């Protein structure tokens, strides 16, 4: 049985932001949910346009699929 190293949500978001910065994008958390459901958005720094929007669960999936976590790491549950 392999145990995974816990990475905080904040650290995972910071890693994602560094990866997005290379592509000219950044992750933003909305103060009030957009359209009542979307908590997060990815914005293009060149056009200041919304590229992606999602909630906390969507963001966790995005982080897992983006490759910012190593195979032996997992996001710590709060």
Task: Give structural notes.
The protein has 78 residues and is α+β, with helices and mostly antiparallel strands. It has two helices and five strands. It has helices spanning 9-22, 56-66, and strands spanning 5-7, 25-34, 38-44, 50-54, 73-75. A three-stranded antiparallel beta sheet has the order 2-3-4. Strands 1-5 form a two-stranded parallel sheet. It is globular and about 40 Å long.
Task: Output the number of helix runs.
Answer: 2
Looking at the structure, what is the overall shape?
globular
Enumerate the spans where pLDDT stays under 50 for 5 or more consecutive residues.
Answer: none
**Overall residue-averaged pLDDT value:** 91
Oligomer: single chain
The succession of helices and strands, N to C, reads: EHEEEHE
Alpha-beta classification: alpha+beta
Q: What is the beta-strand fraction?
A: 35-45%
State the total count of DSSP E strands.
Answer: 5
Q: Could you give the distance between the termini?
A: 23 Å
Largest sheet: 3 strands, antiparallel
Cα Rg: 13 Å
| Sequence of strands across the biggest β-sheet | 2-3-4
Helix content, binned percent: 25-40%
């Amino acid at each position: 049985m392999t145990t995974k190293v816990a990475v905080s949500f904040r650290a995972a978001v910071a890693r994602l932001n560094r990866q997005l910065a290379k592509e000219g994008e950044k992750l933003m958390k909305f103060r009030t949910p957009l359209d009542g459901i979307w908590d997060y958005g990815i914005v293009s720094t060149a056009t200041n346009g919304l590229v992606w929007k999602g909630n906390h669960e969507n963001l966790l999936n995005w982080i897992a699929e983006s490759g910012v976590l190593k195979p032996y790491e997992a996001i710590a549950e709060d």
